[in-house]
Specification:
The chain is of the alpha/beta class. The chain is built from 12 helices and 7 strands. The chain has 2 domains: 69 residues, no CATH class; 178 residues, Rossmann fold (3-Layer(aba) Sandwich). The mean pLDDT is 92. Keywords: Methyltransferase, S-adenosyl-L-methionine, Transferase. InterPro entries: SAM-dependent_MTases_sf, SAM_O-MeTrfase. One of its GO terms (molecular function) is O-methyltransferase activity.
Length: 258
């Protein structure tokens, strides 16, 4: 193995050796508060994807995202390994109306939208306006802007975002086929319960939640465990955190039963 490939293998196995990971950890409080690390990596990722993938090619856009996150600056995308779990969940269904909580820079929206039928719609909710604009730019670059709307807000903002989803995007009882959760881990369970209270889900609706292992959403996992066979049927996918092979993570895929 060459010195360069050995170094790359070590970085993959021991992610804390990567400066971008250390910088992310230092910027953790800023990220939790604002949705960005604070060192400009989100805009740098946008520029990298635009420069390294042809317009209208979603798979090339994803590959450029993965290249940037693995070899330049870590991003909190679902990533290439866990992304296959999301792909498989989407392929098992034919969702028409989808909701994403935590759009970040648009990676998972591109990954999702490329697998949708032409008449399906994904609404991606992102708290940070700059991230939302980055996501819109990259969705347009990938040729998927007609399938995805990016909404700035949060489910827990007192009802404003819920109202926008209902009035502008057609969310109503029994209409939501697929929910992807990848935002503030402490909001996973409260936001899911809010959506349940709205009645948007229907029997057979699918909910996929990333990072249930790391950083972790123990309350969400406990709720799904306690609701197994009555409200939900859940599959736990054992995998790894983004762009490395040392730290283990969980992705939960849950089918709504009632």
């Amino acid at each position: 193995m060459s010195g360069r490939s050995f170094a790359a293998a070590v970085r993959d196995r021991v992610p804390l050796l990567r400066w971008s990971v250390l910088r992310f950890l230092l910027g953790g409080p800023t990220f939790v508060r604002t949705g960005q690390v604070g060192d400009g990596r989100e805009r740098a990722a946008r520029d990298f994807v635009l420069a390294h993938s042809p317009a209208g090619d979603p798979d090339s856009a994803l590959a450029a995202f993965d290249d940037f996150a693995r070899n330049h600056s870590l991003l909190v995308n679902i990533g290439d390994e866990k992304g296959l779990i999301l792909d498989a969940a989407l392929r098992k269904t034919t969702p028409k109306l989808l909701l994403e909580l935590g759009g970040y820079c648009g990676y998972s929206a591109i990954r999702t939208a490329r697998l949708l039928d032409a008449d399906a719609r994904l609404i991606s909710v992102e708290m940070n306006p700059d991230n939302a604009e980055i996501a819109r730019t990259l969705l347009a670059h990938a040729g998927l802007a007609d399938r995805v709307s990016v909404v700035v807000g949060t489910i827990g903002d007192g009802g404003e975002t819920l109202k926008r989803l209902a009035t502008a995007h057609g969310f109503a009882p029994g209409t939501l086929d697929f929910l992807f959760i990848d935002h503030d881990k402490s909001a996973y369970l409260p936001d899911l319960k809010t959506i349940l209270d709205q009645g948007w889900l229907h029997p057979g609706s699918i909910v996929v939640a990333d990072n249930v292992g790391i950083p972790g959403a123990p309350g969400y996992r406990r709720y799904m465990h306690d609701s197994e066979g009555t409200i939900w049927h859940t599959t736990e996918h054992h995998t790894h955190t983004e762009y490395q092979s040392l730290l283990e993570d969980l992705v939960l895929e849950s089918e709504y039963l009632p």
